[in-house]
Amino acid sequence: MEMEDRTDTGPAAPAAPTPPPAGxxxxxxxxxEMGLDQGTLQAVEEMGFTAPMDVQxxxxxxxxxxxxxxxxxxxxxxxxxxxxxxxxxxLVSGEEKxxxxxxxxxxxxxxxxxxxxxxxxxAYKNLTVVPVYGGAPMGRQIQALHDGAQIxxxxxxxxxxxLRRGTFDPSGLKVLVLDECDEMLxxxxxxEIEAIISRLPKERQTLLFSATIPEDIERIARRxxxxxxxxxxxxxxxGVYEISHTYYLVSGQNRPGDLLRVLEYEQPPxxxxxxxTRDDTAMVAGYLRRHGFDSEAISGDLxxxxxxxxxxxxxxxxxxxxxxxxxxxxxxxxxxLPCVINYTFPESPEVYVHRTGRTGRAGKHGLAxxxxxxxxxxxxxYLKLLYKIRPEERGLPSEAELRTRREGERYARLRRxxxxxxxxxxxxxxxxxxxxxxxxxxxxxxLRARVEAMAPHVGSVAFEAPPEPKQSQIxxxxxRRDRDRPPRRDREGGEERSARGRDRGDRPPRGDRxxxxxxxxxxxxx
Length: 526
Description:
This protein is an alpha/beta fold. It has 19 helices and 14 strands. The strands form two sheets. The chain has a seven-stranded parallel sheet, with helices on both faces. Strands 10-11-9-12-13-8-14 form a seven-stranded parallel sheet, with helices on both faces. Helix 3 runs parallel beside helix 4 (79-91), helix 7 (156-165) runs parallel beside helix 9 (190-198) and helix 18 (424-435) crosses helix 19 (439-454). The radius of gyration is 29 Å and the shape is elongated. The chain starts with 30 loop residues before the first helix and ends in a 72-residue tail after the last helix.
């Protein structure tokens, strides 16, 4: 019998255990865990940072590893330091006298804010940061770029102008940052962003930061980013932890009076009040002033010097209410703003997120109040559905409720202001006055004088009707020119744009523009 040839290999060796798949590295919980060099660490400590914020911890590893990232994080969450610290630590070299990092911002205010903060972070690293935006002298920007700036923070229109002129050489660029990308797209900067990216090196790192990630941002990511890592820090808790959302259903017939009732009842120490049109900002600010509230309006019609004056009053606490349109408020940075009020409800959920994101920053609590009329309920319900926000409904307070509220506040103020014991003699006199026939009148006058001496008198609410519309406008749809859009000329060279997306304030003056037809640019005389 033929024997089957078998090779006896013995018992099978046990298989080696499969190592678990490597997960993402743990997020650093402190600046020490980030491994910052001494200069950068000293700079962030001098800026008052004690520990990295959520967005800085979540993005540190991917950025330092060279990944493209898409970050959804609400306004005021610390995004500038999230890319500014990596710039100073590793991504930008002070030895190379060419632009290595470009941050595109929607407004000149934000470009300035970014440039100042990044300059502070890199104060000990021999890095030069240049803000580039429309309305500023072109000659100075050209000189700063020629002298060897390594980082640019600028608006799309002016950055593109420098690229076309050849005064910005992008050949050494390593990192592109699109900051507040949804804001840039909503302002009509799509074409400029595409034109800028087409002139940049293909081999670069792209960091995109946005409070919301709509489809047009997804398209930008698909076209211009390499396998971006998505980091979502705001989708599940927009305003849930830091912001209390509340709303009042109003008829829309006397919205200024309804706002006055709400302010009297809520008593915010200060607030940013949003309107959808420029006309409304002027009307609301004037209405509040007539009823004793310090308020000013800013819109696209306001010149830069007046805008800076109004903002300075707000920052110094000399003005209680700032009334603004969405475009005019872009780039405004108010520290510790306790309250945001939607006088008119925004037409898109993304605008609501940006408005309310101006309060409740850096872990502090904020309040978002909205007046919602019947015609705005559709937008209101879409917001609740999209972002899972559950605002608290409150009824408009009656005059009796407002009077009770005022009396309670005045009583509490008197108790705080009069802590000392008056003594038996004065107590006896008080009883005698109170029990006399004129006691109530005398006590009322004494209280009035004392309360008015402690704080400016705001008086009781008078529910004045809003201005009557012109006869030709009654029943007519709102004209497009009354919407929240910038004027045809930006008086001080701001970054506001027309509804068609044509560059207005971000374009340089005519003398600074490149010539048509491919001719070389005119020489710059500063």
